[in-house]
Each structure stands twice: as structure tokens, then as C-alpha cells.
Design brief:
The complex is a heterodimer. By secondary structure, chain A is α+β, with helices and mostly antiparallel strands. Chain A folds into two domains: 90 residues, Arc Repressor Mutant, subunit A (Orthogonal Bundle), CATH 1.10.10.1590; 77 residues, 3-Layer(aba) Sandwich (Glutaredoxin), CATH 3.40.30. Chain A has seven helices and four strands; from the N terminus they run H-H-H-H-E-H-H-E-E-E-H. Chain A has a four-stranded mixed β-sheet, covered by helices on one side. The longest helix of chain A is centred in the middle third of the chain and has 12 residues. Chain A is elongated. The N and C termini of chain A lie far apart (40 Å). The relative contact order of chain A is 0.15. By secondary structure, chain B is of the alpha/beta class. Chain B folds into three domains: 215 residues, NADH-ubiquinone oxidoreductase 51kDa subunit (Rossmann fold); 85 residues, Ubiquitin-like (UB roll) (Roll); 88 residues, Up-down Bundle (de novo design (two linked rop proteins)), CATH 1.20.1440. In chain B, the strands form three sheets. A five-stranded mixed β-sheet of chain B has the order 6-5-11-8-9. In chain B, strands 3-2-1-4 form a four-stranded parallel β-sheet, sandwiched between helices. In chain B, strands 7-10 form a two-stranded antiparallel sheet. In chain B, helix 3 packs across helix 6 and helix 5 packs across helix 6. Chain B starts with 26 loop residues before the first helix and ends in an 11-residue tail after the last helix. The chains are: A alpha+beta, B alpha/beta. At the A-B interface, helix 2 and helix 5 of A face strand 3, strand 5, strand 11, helix 14 and helix 15 of B.
Chain lengths: 194, 435
């Protein structure tokens, strides 16, 4: 039902960046929607996962951290990755997918090399966040929210409250949390991300 | 100190005393500032005595609900042979609120000490700190602090030589406001979708992994070491208005204000003093229109209501709203209230976990109706429709997310009806394209 568009389970993955394919590789990653799947959980990653098992009484509880490990390694969480996570945690792929799609920070499609999230919730909104968002869309060349720039460099998404309302407007570029962004600062900021 | 502004003389910095001081972040720096003395003292006491001290202090949950912390701890079963868990709620996502972030990024050991004391008091050997996924810097700082505290023996298998085991494990969220609801948080830690649970059973009986669990907010736990060091009576004495609201409170102030930031005030401080003295008032030539005092989930206050409001749990209720998480959104006369209420409704529609019909449908339809009004397609009957929807979204669902969506809509229509009318009657240019 369309009234629920944008709610849990139909998150940012539904945006126009579907099928970016050739631009989809994240830093250090090589997953595209067509490349053969290479396992994440071997060697060092498997050792880290086994370390995680000691921190929780169930394997299932390692699901969110395991998904983070996949996303860090591959840039996004593909169907085969969902299958692999299910296998190492003794869960079903359908169950894992249900969890992945609940949380908006997991990418279910390839995104640009740098993923930008801009807060536009009310406290930032009244301080000019929509102008920051427009500047980001313009300067990255993404054209619209959720789309990846033609050079594969950036994807821009709107995000709900980043929890830094006194430092309007905050944005996240990959893991870099940047406070007090104004439209004029955007071009300079982007230069640091190649 | 103080961050991003030096502490104002009218503030009462207890938790925020070392904000802005990077040296307070390290274990040694924290110990030099009197850190971990509270934990040392507690380890010589019985858990029951610790709970009593917190009860005496009058400390209430700082995450929004204001439930008495000592009472919450006392609801945990006593040494029943099962594992007990402490969960620290660091999923701070309530629009307008940004205090827990500052506690974690400036004084991570203040929080860890509070966690260790609380874990001891409730008989837990494990504490999970659930940090929202977007808080990348606080996560790194907390990770370093946990490693350091464990290496120094303040956490781990033999806490400060007492033989007590207290482990702290950081759990990173992945983008879901609803996981700040305590039972949704438990599901999220267990590796599930963050759907809130039906209560009862309450977490103290059936919590994380089915075991007795206490969930406390970051700010609540950060206050605990100070109470244990200086005594419950001292904390109880920090109260200007009502003995039911004690201690200090970090107020996050944002929006149209000269100096946004966190301000730590004694409970009962007038809102007026906070806005005009500590925060420097409105921008030049602007006047106050509205305040949302407790994070976006509480009713909007008019400027007149804000004018003589006292900042504590009862004081804000007396003015028709709630202290909540004390994330104060200040709006001046340039604010389009209808547009901002729509933006808030969009937030709740996006964040609904979609379990309950009233919330899933109600939040989404509220957005659509507000969109029509903003597009110049509003009708008089939309007022009643919005109020009917809001009534169905209040007190009828598993958690209070849909109540939170209804609060700004209902209070907005009550207090700023003329702004809705202006759109409906065509006296104001549409703010959105027709849908």
C-alpha cells in the first residue's frame, strides 16, 4: 500500500540508485550486482565474528554487527551476502533480509564511493537544512536524492535527525560526522572526497 | 569548561563540567578529575544500599519518561541465579536532543563509571551500550574508553580488585529511531527487527535474552557516580521548584536561538532565563513564536506558555507539555508552523515500525493531509479529520511513537490554527506543489 511508502521495509534502497552496477564498488570492495560472490567471513573477518560470539549468549544477536562487517568490507549488502550471513549465524536468508530492510543504514543496493547523509528534520529544517541538501545534490552532480553521481563518486540521501541539532546542519560523509554545514561550505567539503 | 560555549554563570555544571576538555576523555585524565572514586566507594557497599542512595537522590530517567531510577533498579529480582543485564540507551534520536552525544564524546568514563555502578546495583555482569549507528565519533571514543578501562581494571573480570565481574559491550545501531524505545532496543540487540514489545511483561522480569534487564539513558547513568560520591541528599537538594524533580538537567537548545548548545541547569530553572540569559535570546529583530520543550514528541508551547514555564518535570506539564528528553526546539516569528508540523509528521511516518495499524496508517495519512493543506488544497473538514486521526493514534498502540506524531499536530491546531486557515483560505501561497 502506497501510504506506507518510506516506512520500515521500504527504505532508501528503493531509490533511483538501483542498478548502478558498474559504479557500485565501495572503497576496498568489489561487489557489483553481477560479479561472482566472494565470501566475507574467512580469515580476519571470521576471527572477528568468532570474537563477537563470546560477547552475546546467542549467535542471532551478532546479526547487526555481522551486517556492519559485510557493509564495511563490500560497501553494501547483496543477496549472496545475506545468504552468507544467514549461514554463519544459523538463520534463514529470509529472516536476515527482514532485518536488513528494517534498518535504514544498511544498503541493499550499491551506492557511490562516498555516501552522504544530510539531516533535514525540523530543528535543522528551520535553520536552512533544505538549502544544504540542494547544494549537495547540485555540487555532487547526483541530480536527485538517492541517485548516484554519473562518475560514481557520491550518493546523497536525506536522513532523519542525526542528533546534533545544536550544530545545524550536520551531515555524514561515510563515517565523517561534519557539523554546522552551510550551502557555501559544500564545494570545499566535497573536495576532500575523491 | 563547557561546549561549544563556556559554561554560563547561571548553569550548574555537574555532568557537563568537563565538556570541551579533551584530557578528560582518557582514563588517567578522568581519574585525575576524581573519576572512578564513586565506583570504588560503591564496591564497598551492598547493592541494596546503592539502590537506596539513588532512591534518596530522587533521580528520574533522563531519556524522556522520567521514571524514578532507584525504583526501577529495585524492581529487578534479587540474586535469582539467572543472568541480569544492564542496557544503556545511547540511541539518542529524538529531534532536538543532542546531550548524550556530548556526554559520550567528552566524558566517556563518566558514563562507564555510571554503567559499572548500575550493573553492580542490579546484579548484572554485563552491560550493553546501544549507540545509534550515525554516532560514528562517540562510538570510537567509547570504544577506546572501554578498552582503556578494561586494561586498567576498572571494568572486566575483577573490577578494581573487588572480584566483581562487569563487562561493557558496545552495540551499534543501524538507523532506526524506534530502537530508542526500550523494548525495541532489546529486540535490536537480540538481532531482530526493532519492533517494540507488548508490556507486560516488563524488562525487569523478561528483558534482554529473556532475562531480568534494566534500561537506563546515558544522562541518567552519567549522574550516578556524582550521586554516589556526594550523596543522595546533596542531589535531592538541587531543586528550585518541586521536590519531585531533583538534580541538574542537560537541556539541548536548538533552532532559532543565538547560542545553541547544551546547558546544564538546576531543576526548576525558569525557561525564560535559559532562553534569554544563557542562550543569548532570539536573533536580532526576531521574536519567539513557539517552543517544543522535550524533543519533538511533546506538545508545542506558545511563546506565552514558555514565558513563565519552569524547567522541571512538573513545571513543563503545568504549561501543557512535557520535559521529555529536554531537547528544546526554539522557533521564532519566521517559522511556518504548518510546514514544520508536516515535517515532524513525516519524521514519525518514516520511523514507524509499522506494527500497529493506527501508527502505520495514521502517521502516513497525517502527512498526506498536511501535504494537501500546504499545497493549497486544504478544506475545513481537514481539521476534524486530523484530530480524529490523532485521537486514534493516542494511547492505542504498543509504544508511544504515534502519540508522538499526534502531539505536535493536535497542539499545533490548537495554538496556531490561523496558520492552517491561511493555507486553506488561500491567504498564503502554497508551500508545496499540488499532490
Amino acid at each position: 500500500m502506497s501510504t506506507t511508502a518510506g516506512q520500515r521495509g521500504s527504505g532508501p534502497g528503493e531509490g533511483p540508485h538501483r542498478g548502478v552496477g558498474e559504479h557500485g564498488s565501495a572503497p576496498g570492495g568489489h561487489d557489483t550486482e553481477t560479479a561472482p560472490y566472494e565470501r566475507v567471513f574467512r580469515g580476519e573477518h571470521m576471527a572477528r565474528l568468532e570474537q563477537l560470539f563470546t560477547k552475546y549468549p546467542t549467535k542471532q544477536a551478532c546479526l547487526l554487527p555481522a551486517l556492519w562487517m559485510v557493509q564495511e568490507a563490500r560497501g553494501w549488502i547483496s543477496e549472496p551476502a545475506i545468504g552468507e550471513v544467514a549461514e554463519v549465524l544459523d538463520l534463514t536468508p529470509a529472516y536476515v533480509k527482514g532485518v536488513v530492510t528494517f534498518y535504514t543504514m544498511y544498503h541493499t543496493h550499491p551506492v557511490g564511493r562516498h555516501f552522504i547523509q544530510v539531516c533535514t528534520t525540523s530543528p535543522c529544517n528551520i535553520c536552512g537544512a533544505e538549502d544544504v541538501m540542494k547544494a549537495l545534490i547540485r555540487e555532487t552532480g547526483c541530480g536527485e536524492l538517492g541517485a548516484t553521481s554519473p562518475d560514481g563518486r557520491f550518493t546523497v540521501m536525506e536522513v532523519e535527525c542525526l542528533g546534533a541539532c545544536g550544530f545545524a546542519t550536520p551531515i555524514l560523509i561515510d563515517d565523517d560526522f561534519i557539523e554546522s554545514v552551510t550551502p557555501d561550505k559544500v564545494p570545499g567539503l566535497l573536495q576532500r572526497y575523491k | 569548561m563547557g561546549y561549544p560555549h563556556p559554561s554560563h554563570p547561571k548553569e550548574n555544571p555537574v555532568l557537563s563540567k568537563h565538556f570541551g576538555d579533551p584530557e578528560a576523555r582518557s582514563y588517567d585524565g578522568w581519574v585525575k578529575r576524581g573519576g572512578y572514586e564513586g565506583l570504588k566507594k560503591v564496591l564497598r557497599m551492598t547493592p541494596e544500599a546503592v539502590v537506596e542512595e539513588i532512591k534518596t537522590s530522587g533521580l528520574r530517567g533522563r531519556g524522556g519518561a522520567g521514571f524514578p531510577t532507584g525504583l526501577k533498579w529495585s524492581l529487578m529480582p534479587k540474586a535469582d541465579g539467572r543472568p541480569h543485564y544492564l542496557v544503556c540507551n545511547a540511541d539518542e534520536s529524538e529531534p532536538g536532543t543532542f546531550k548524550d552525544r556530548e556526554i559520550m564524546r567528552w566524558t566517556p568514563h563518566q558514563l562507564l563509571e555510571g554503567c559499572a555502578i548500575a550493573a553492580y546495583a542490579i546484579g548484572a555482569e554485563r552491560c550493553y551500550i546501544y549507540i545509534r549507528g550515525e554516532f560514528t565519533d562517540p562510538y570510537k571514543i567509547m570504544e577506546k574508553a572501554v578498552d582503556e578501562a578494561t586494561a586498567k581494571g576498572a571494568l572486566g573480570g575483577n573490577v578494581l580488585g573487588s572480584g566483581q565481574r562487569i563487562e561493557v559491550i558496545l552495540h551499534r545501531g543501524a538507523g532506526a529511531y524506534i530502537c530508542g524505545e526500550e523494548t525495541a532496543m532489546l529486540n535490536s540487540i537480540e538481532g531482530k527487527r526493532g519492533n517494540p514489545r507488548i508490556k507486560p511483561p516488563y524488562p525487569a522480569q523478561v528483558g534482554l535474552f529473556g532475562m531480568p534487564t534494566t534500561i537506563n539513558n546515558v544522562e541518567t547513568l552519567a549522574a550516578v557516580p556524582h550521586i554516589m560520591m556526594r550523596g543522595g541528599e546533596w542531589y535531592k537538594g538541587l531543586s528550585l521548584n518541586n521536590p519531585k524533580s531533583t538534580g541538574t538537567k542537560l537541556i539541548s537548545v536548538c533552532g532559532h536561538i543565538q547560542r545553541p548548545g547544551n546547558y546544564e541547569v538546576t531543576m526548576g530553572t525558569p525557561m525564560r532565563e535559559l532562553i534569554y540569559d544563557m542562550c543569548g535570546g532570539m536573533r536580532p529583530g526576531r521574536t519567539l513564536k513557539a517552543v517544543i520543550p522535550g524533543g519533538s514528541s511533546v506538545p508545542i508551547m506558545s511563546a506565552a506558555e514558555a514565558d513563565d514555564c519552569l524547567l522541571d518535570y512538573e513545571g513543563v506539564v503545568a504549561k501543557g507539555s512535557m520535559l521529555g528528553s529536554a531537547g528544546m526546539i526554539v522557533m521564532d516569528d519566521t517559522t511556518d508552523m504548518v510546514y514544520q508540523i508536516w515535517r515532524l509528521a513525516r519524521f514519525y511516518a518514516h520511523e514507524s515500525c509499522a506494527q500497529c495499524t493506527q501508527c502505520r496508517e495514521g502517521t502516513a495519512w497525517s502527512v498526506r493531509i498536511l501535504e494537501r493543506i500546504l499545497a493549497g488544497k486544504g478544506k475545513q473538514e481537514h481539521f476534524q479529520l486530523l484530530l480524529d486521526l490523532s485521537d486514534n493514534m493516542t494511547g492505542k498502540t504498543i509504544c508511544v511513537l504515534s502519540d508522538s506524531c499526534a502531539a505536535p499536530i493536535v497542539s499545533g491546531i490548537q495554538k496556531f490554527r490561523h496558520e492552517f486557515e491561511a493555507y486553506i483560505q488561500g491567504a498564503r501561497e502554497p508551500a508545496l506543489a499540488a499532490v
